[in-house]
Design goal:
The chain is of the alpha+beta class. It has helices at 36-44, 68-79, 126-129, 131-134, 175-179, 190-243, 249-299, 303-310, 320-333, 362-366; strands spanning 25-27, 33-35, 49-50, 57-58, 115-117, 122-124, 143-144, 164-166, 171-173, 187-189, 383-386, 391-394, 435-441, 447-453. The protein has 10 helices and 14 strands. Residues 150-190 form the B box-type domain.
Length: 454
Amino acid sequence: MAEAQLCGLQDEFTCSVCLDTLTDPVTIPCGHSFCLKCLMDCWDQSQLCSCPQCRHYFTTRPALRRTTLHNEVIKKLKKTTISPPPSPPPPSKNYAGPGDMECDFCTGKKFRAVKSCLTCSASYCWTHLQLHYEVAALMHHKLVDPDRNLKEKLCEKHQKSLEIFCKTDEMCICMMCVVTGHKNHEMVELEMEREEKQKQLGATLNDIKRGLEEREKTLKETRRAMEEMKMSVKRDVEENKKSFTGLIRCIEEADRKLTERIREQEKRETEKAEGVMEQLKKEIEELKRREAELKELSETKDHLHFLQVSSTLHRESDQTGVCETREHLQRNLKFPFFFSFLLFSAPEAPVFILQPPEPQSRDDFLKYFCPLTLDMNTANRDLHLSEGNKKVTFKGTKAEYPDHPDRFDRWPQVLCREALTGTRCYWEVEYGTGVLSTHHTFCDPPLVTQRVLP
C-alpha cells in the first residue's frame, strides 16, 4: 500500500485463506471477512460450514452478502501509487524567493519547498525530500504539492489526510473514519463530490449574473426617472414664474408658496431616489465581490478547499423589495406637478384657477388612472368575481356569497371598494359578450359600480 495511514489496516483487508487483499469481500455472522471465492471453495470441500479463521460452526450455511464498505476502501487502496521522486531543480532556483514556501528542515538560508507531506505535516526542499524516497518507513507517506494549509487537510481525530466525502454527514473524512465512525454511510471520492458541487456553483453564478443585470437595469431606470423628474420640476418652476410675472404682490406670494411646495416634493422624491440608488450600488458591489470569490473558487484545483468553502455559500437572488421600491418611486417621479386652484388671502385679491391641459393620448389619460377593486359584499349573487376581484361575470347559477346588508338583491350590480378622488379619474374596462354598463353610485364614501347585463 502507498500510504502510511493505511498500513495499520492491512490485516483487516487481508483474506486469511489466500493471504492476499480481499477480492469481492463478504462478512459472515462471526464478524470475519473473506474473499467470496475463497469462502465458497472452503465450504464446498467440507460437509460442515465453519469460519476458516475462528472455526465457529454454523448449523446452516449463512447467506453471504457483499461488504460494500470494505470493497470501496480496497479499491481506494489499489488505486494508491507511490509518486516518483521529482527531478532536482537548477541550483539557482533552490532558494526560496518572495511568495515561495520554505523548507521546514533547512537551517540558515531556506531552500524552496517542492513537496509537502500530509503524514509529517511538513514541507521539504528537494534535498530533504530524498529520505521519503529512500527510507522504507517514509515511502508510504502522502506527498502533495507545497501547501501552506496542511492542518486543514488532516483529520482532526486521526491526523490522517482527508480523502473521502461522507454525504450522510456532509463532511470530509479520512480512511480511518471510513471503517470507524462512518460505517454504512453514503460516501464518495472528493473528485465526484467536487463535480456535483461545481454544478451547484455554476447555478449560483448564473443567479448572481442575473441579479447584477437586473440591478444595473434598475439603477439605470431609476437614474433616468430622476433626471426626468428634475427636468419636469425645472419646467414647472419656469412656467410658474412666467405665469406670475407682472402680477401684484399677492400673486408673487402665491408664486413663492407654490415653488416651495414643488421644491419640497422634489426633495422628498430625490431623497427616495438617492436612497434606492445607494442601496443598489451596495448590492452591486457585494454581488461583484461574491462573483469574484465564486469564480476564484471554481478555478481552484484544491478539491478539499473547494468543498470546505462552497458549503458556506448561499444563493441570493431575492430582489422583490428593490423592484417594488423602484416601481413605486418611478410612479411618483413621473406624476405631474399640477394644482387645481390657488386661493389668496390678500384683501379683495382675485382668485386664479390653473387648470391642467386637456389629455389627448392614452398616456395622458393614464396620469389620472385609478385602480379599482370590486366589493364582494355588494355583488349580486348572479355575478361571479374572479382574478382578485378585478373581473366580474354574469352567470345563471347563484354564487354562494355570505349574507350582507350592502348586497344588491334585485339588480345584477356590484360596487367598487375604492372611492374616486380628485378632479379627474380614469379607469379602463375590458368586456366580452353581453352589455357592460358603468355608472357612478354615490355612497359614503362615493363608490363606482359596474353592472353586466345578460
